[in-house]
Amino acid sequence: MSDSATPSLHPSVICTVDVVLLTLRDTRLEVLLAQRDRAPFEGAWALPGGFVHPQEDADAAASATRVLREKTGLEAPYLEQLGTYSGLARDPRGWSIAVVYCALVPLEDLEQALHRRSTTRPSVARLHDAANLGRLPFDHDAMVAGAIERVRSKSQYSSLPVHLCGAEFTLPQLQRTYEAVLGEPLNKVSFRRKMEELNVLEPVEGAMQGGAAHRPAQLYRVREAYRQRLSMLERGL
Amino acid sequence: MSDSATPSLHPSVICTVDVVLLTLRDTRLEVLLAQRDRAPFEGAWALPGGFVHPQEDADAAASATRVLREKTGLEAPYLEQLGTYSGLARDPRGWSIAVVYCALVPLEDLEQALHRRSTTRPSVARLHDAANLGRLPFDHDAMVAGAIERVRSKSQYSSLPVHLCGAEFTLPQLQRTYEAVLGEPLNKVSFRRKMEELNVLEPVEGAMQGGAAHRPAQLYRVREAYRQRLSMLERGL
Asked: Domain named Nudix hydrolase: which ranges (chains A, B) (predicted)?
């Protein structure tokens, strides 16, 4: 081993978390951006992020949850680690490690949180069309692209898209959510079979949704055990 | 944002890389462990790892490559980022971030490298049966479990196992490699169709392997473009 110094004598590494928060507006994926209030890139719209706070955060996932809470008011959305971006080239302040998390949030939860937050302090976060973000600072373009690729590919064989639905939804609504994320239509019969295999839904007792034009449809919610973790399919959709 | 200090004023975070190097001996996955030459856990067998060296490494992947080179003599094996483990609880020295990489190496390449290295300095690294590792220090048990799960699940729909084969191999040898990783037999006809779909192999001109008992089999190698990256199947094996 070539390390003989104690860690504190090593040149310091900048340790941050960044969050790619994705939500679905109709059939369009949107990404949350926050306006930077300091250099570098002061004033630019970027992924919400910040330094890890070793004296406050239990781990980097807790740092990401804290950053999201500070910038949006959201508590405990569905969060998974996307990957870590590191090195000398990505941040003008020096050698850095950014642990990146992907958060999925139903649009109405996010809009309510942002609205509540805006009544007490100036809004710093806003949703942007994921397909037309323009050029973001740091390596945030790569992070967004990585998150979208991960969500698309994982939606093929898991319950991931349920985290983009509200608290209660019908099976046709869930199917449209999957179709929007995957960008392709799905067969209704095989979709329903796959949802049964995933086994993450439970009917909301006595709750139906229906208008004049449609037969009433049963409302479902995600079972408690699957609100922070995924169920995986043996074979994809 | 609650950060107003410059990064260097933040309490320091210990930044390391750890490598889960996997290889296949017959049908058994083995993991490389290195004996720790310092506290904490001095003398224990653990995953090879070390601090990132900001003045030497371009990024954390370069740190992982350097650590593997120092401990095994291997140059540029197939490497992918597994994930990042972080927080106050995982290292007795303090709040830490460990970026973990998974390396796949053909057994003979690794054994040759370890042998060459042992002629110049004492050996610090050794292969252990992945199924009988005992208890490892830090959160290295979780890292090994995570790497094996990743390799198993990714082998279902990608060219990943080719990185466990030597430079040249027959299709039956490659099929046995997939079967060993997946832990289940595969149908020969559909396996070959999937390998064609992956399109990562090229025949070695004029090279056949065969003994008295078998019809000679064509030897293949991995195409240059796929030695450091994967090809993915539309639908898994």
From this structure: 8-164
